[in-house]
Design brief:
The structure holds three protein chains of three kinds. By secondary structure, chain A is an alpha+beta fold. Chain A is about 20% helix and about 25% strand. The radius of gyration of chain A is 23 Å and the shape is elongated. The chains are: A alpha+beta, B alpha+beta, C alpha+beta. Chain C: This is Exoribonuclease phosphorolytic domain-containing protein.
């Protein structure tokens, strides 16, 4: 589902698999196992939006995200209701993913969108930011466009772009009070960021979703298309930074570290699990029925790729989560990198 | 997926050589149309148009619905067209082909977007009730020039159509049966017609044909459809790709199209008058009389 | 939002301050994406589109359903050209989702595919397909024209042989269909506001010739206005063609200067500018 078959022979797949199983693994593009592709990022590129970002990976993969906000009336606002605080709903956020050469109702595309949505709304904090008053709320449309032809599974790219676009999103400043019809400040300069900048910034920051694969005992981040084709497990791990207000008296010892919160883990169906074309019936696991011949035995042949069978061990998942969350780990590194992007 | 049968090389050469010599396969002149027949059904709002072997039937129906929330003062008007496998095996149900998309867009632009039908007159109670007029286009057989035939049929059927009369007292809406009150025609503003020109030859200048047959249509290198009413208003022009044509040609084509559009207007007017005459049995007195023909 | 056309006849300046025969700022770029075979980015005023081209590659056997990208030059002997248009939700002022099954978008796709099928030398690539993915990032009038221009640039970037450029622009007429005054002036290159108020045509020509590849009009207009609008639009297309040409030559010169491409002896281009 993730990507279609790469046109690689069993021998080539095996070569990839063996070099990735070495300790330390050797990746075909020479990266370290935890290294991301270099990227360039820009924000505030679309004037007509509340926030936008464009990210380009060094291999040419490019995505653009625009966030647009509209005011909407909250249905059945019971005025008599006791002030239950801000009642917010996740469906105030709409995410649409457009991938060229794929239908917009394709299961894969919808899955991608839902994964990003889940990470964003997971802890229920985000929807609260869209609350205006008891009668009105913001409806946020997040449109994600993949501009380049689909090279590898675009999840990390789309997630990083969405992260930046959300950081750059601003909403007009509210002038009215209470439950009256909302009035906003016309001045864009005085608009407020959805995710406040430095200073009184408390709460969850926008999430990032990382794509992690394992080959043998190795955990590899940001896999390329070829690496995905031999992966034994592929996981999408969503994390977000949580900032807490520091009490005055506390000594600022631990200022460097950021607190990370694990939001969700989803398994991705890597193409390595599919039966590659040209495999005789006997070894194809999908045909279930009688093998065409008994010649093809189940024993692996050295130098020939065989699709992995079975699920993921818990310890492997655990290892991945550790690698993502640890201080100075991958998520930390990526967030550090993204912090360097100037927000327009 | 079945594909259309393509004409053989011999057929291609024959047709294009003939065109170079100024002849069409069926002996017509370049700007001559096949005989057009327009018939109305027994019911109001049914029209059948025939251009040679191309045959299109249109049926118009009306019902009361809720208007769209963004247009509370307007009724609903839609044109539905579907090409079934009955026409040609290359058309499949539920899978709009290129021809079908272009046909429905063409009718939409020519008739709906140009405001031929006054949709505001279809409003009954603002934001609550309105008429929904629907024209269903059925293509019975196809031998080229589908757009022109379909457009003529839709316009004729809509002008022939009578919707039940209604009245509003306070909040109560009454729709009368034809026996209670004579049905009323739609509020029709102007009658646009589609005229398609087909261009032949590598440069598009070998021949300019009107009313092409299916064979000619498969061999044309480019086409352009004009939609005009008799007042000389262009409602739509579309030359969507194909071989490029010298710009002044379009200006000439527009004049030819205008003349043709007047011809069609006259045809529809005459046929409608004939139909009205055949329905008119001499008024109420004639209906009430007990006298019989013996 | 009614456009106050009365001010036009006084100052002869349009809402955005242009004169009748002025194009909006046209900004074109090619080779913007490393991963694509050909790519382009085009701005015509506030209309911003992007084209990413893949191919010519092995024809996909109706893999993803015929619904998307329409093959025009029937496969087999010729290459087919597939076009898909994605209009981003944030492209216009209010957020509106246009599905891919939208007939208007499909008509645009068909128009672009058919136009290029007659210009590109498809017979050189039998049994293959050329896919154009067009992204509309911001729509402010003259959309079809911008898409056609962007597609031309991407095809040139990919080095696919074609007989000439396809250059497109729009032209309108200052009086609406209701007013029958004959003093109507044609206008060049309309923005959304003008498109909503005035009748207009979209014209694409073959290079700098008078040959029209696309002529599209969706609004009511007197037939006598057609000639005037057509003449203005064709002149506009010539101007657009020169601007596109300039963008491509500038990029070519830059690539030679940077050493990305070799200067051939036959090239008579002056790189000094």
């Amino acid at each position: 589902m993730a990507t279609t078959h790469t046109l690689l022979s069993p021998a080539e797949l095996n070569y990839l698999h063996t070099s990735l199983s070495l300790r330390p693994p050797i990746r075909s593009d020479g990266r370290l196992p935890t290294q991301f592709r270099p990227l360039t990022a820009e924000t505030g590129i679309l004037q007509g939006t509340n926030g936008s970002a464009c990210v380009t990976f060094s291999d040419g993969a490019e995505a653009i995200v625009g966030v647009k906000a509209e005011i909407e009336k909250t249905p059945d606002a019971q005025s008599g209701d006791e002030d239950k605080g801000k009642k917010a709903r996740g469906d105030w956020v709409e995410i649409s993913v457009e991938i060229p050469s794929q239908r917009d109702d394709d299961a894969g595309t919808i899955f991608l969108g839902e994964m990003l949505r889940e990470a964003l709304l997971g802890d229920g904090e985000f929807a609260k930011k869209l609350w205006i008053n008891r009668r009105f709320h913001w409806r946020l449309h997040i449109d994600i466009l993949l501009l380049s032809p689909a090279l590898s599974y675009p999840l990390p790219l789309l997630s990083l772009t969405t992260h930046l676009a959300l950081l750059a999103t601003r909403l007009p400043k509210l002038k009215s009070e209470g439950d009256e019809d909302p009035m906003f400040d016309d001045d864009w300069e005085s608009s407020v960021f959805v995710y406040p900048r430095e200073g009184a910034s408390e709460g969850t920051r926008p999430p990032i979703t990382l794509l992690v694969v394992t080959v043998g005992d190795n955990v590899i981040f940001d896999p390329s298309k070829e690496e995905l084709a031999v992966a034994e497990t592929a996981l999408a791990v969503s994390v977000a930074e949580v900032r807490r207000e520091k009490s005055r008296g506390e000594m600022e010892v631990d200022t460097k570290g950021r607190e990370l919160k694990l939001l969700s883990i989803r398994t991705i169906d890597p193409p390595s699990r599919l039966t590659p074309p040209g495999v005789p019936n006997g070894t194809a696991t999908a045909t279930d029925g009688k093998p065409a011949s008994n010649l093809a035995s189940e024993t692996p042949v050295a130098g020939v790729w065989k699709a992995p069978l079975g699920g993921t061990k818990f310890s492997v998942v655990d290892g991945i989560v550790q690698a993502v969350l640890e201080k100075g780990g991958v998520a930390d590194e990526v967030l550090d990198g993204l912090d360097g992007v100037e927000l327009a | 997926m079945p594909r259309e049968a393509e004409p053989s090389l011999n057929e291609r050469n024959f047709v294009s050589r003939a065109l170079e010599e100024g002849l069409r396969v069926d002996g017509r002149k370049f700007d001559q149309c096949r005989p057009v027949s327009l018939k109305f059904g027994d019911e109001f709002g049914v029209a059948e148009v025939q251009f040679g072997k191309t045959k299109v039937l249109v049926k118009v129906s009306a019902e009361v619905t809720v208007p769209y929330t963004d247009r509370p003062f307007e009724g609903v008007f839609s044109i539905a067209s579907e090409l079934s496998p009955m026409v040609a095996p290359s058309f499949e149900v539920n899978r709009p082909t290129e021809t079908e998309v272009l046909l429905s867009r063409m009718l939409e632009k020519t008739i709906r977007r140009s405001g031929a039908l006054d949709t505001e007159s279809l409003c009954l109670v603002a934001g609550k009730k309105c008429w929904s007029i629907r024209a269903d286009v059925h293509v019975l057989s196809l031998d080229g020039n589908l757009t022109d035939a379909a457009c003529l049929a839709v316009v004729a059927a809509l002008r022939h159509f009578r919707k039940p009369d209604s009245s509003i007292e306070g909040e109560i809406l009454t729709v009368y049966t034809p026996a209670e009150r004579e049905p009323v025609p739609l509020s029709w503003l102007h009658s646009p017609f589609c005229i398609t020109f087909s261009y032949f030859g590598e440069e598009g200048d070998t021949a300019v044909l009107l009313d092409t047959t299916w064979l000619e249509e498969q061999l044309r290198t480019s086409s352009c459809t004009f939609s005009l009413n008799r007042h000389g208003e262009i409602c739509q022009v579309s030359k969507l790709g194909g071989v490029s044509i010298d710009a002044p040609v379009f200006v000439q084509c527009a004049q030819v199209a205008l003349a043709k559009s007047k011809e069609y207007t006259e045809l529809v007017d005459r046929k409608l008058a004939e139909d009205a005459k055949s329905r008119d049995k001499g008024g109420l007195m004639a209906e009430l009389t007990a006298e019989n023909d013996r | 939002m009614p456009l106050d056309t009365s001010t036009y006849s006084l100052a002869l300046l349009r809402v955005d301050g242009r004169r009748w025969n002025e194009l909006r700022r046209l900004h074109a770029q090619i080779r913007i994406q490393a991963a694509a075979d050909g790519s382009s980015y085009l701005e015509m005023g506030n209309t911003k589109v992007m084209c990413v081209l893949t191919g010519p590659s092995e024809a996909q056997q109706q893999q993803q359903g015929q619904r998307r990208g329409q093959a025009t030059a029937g496969g087999g002997k010729n290459a087919s050209i597939n076009v898909s248009i994605v209009v981003a939700g944030f492209a216009s002022v209010d957020h509106k989702k246009r599905g891919r099954n939208d007939k208007r978008t499909q008509e645009l796709e068909l128009t672009i595919a058919k136009t290029f099928a007659s210009v590109v030398h498809t017979h050189l690539f039998p049994n293959s397909s050329i896919s154009l993915a067009l992204h509309v990032l911001s729509a402010d009038g003259s959309l079809l024209a911008a898409l056609l221009n962007a597609a031309t640039l991407a095809l040139i970037d990919a080095g696919i042989p074609m007989s000439d450029y396809i250059a497109a622009c729009t032209a309108g007429s200052t009086s609406s269909y209701a007013a029958a005054d004959d003093s109507a002036d044609p206008l060049l290159d309309l923005n959304t506001q003008e498109e909503q108020e005035l009748p207009f045509i979209t014209v694409a020509t073959l290079g700098e010739t008078d040959r029209v590849a696309v002529l599209n009009c969706e609004s009511r207009v007197q037939v006598s206005r057609l000639e005037g609008m057509l003449a203005v639009a064709v002149d506009g297309c010539k101007e657009v063609k020169q601007l596109l040409d300039k963008a491509i030559k500038a990029k070519g010169a830059k690539m030679i200067r940077e050493g990305a491409a070799e200067k051939s002896d036959a090239m008579a281009m002056d790189l000094d500018e």
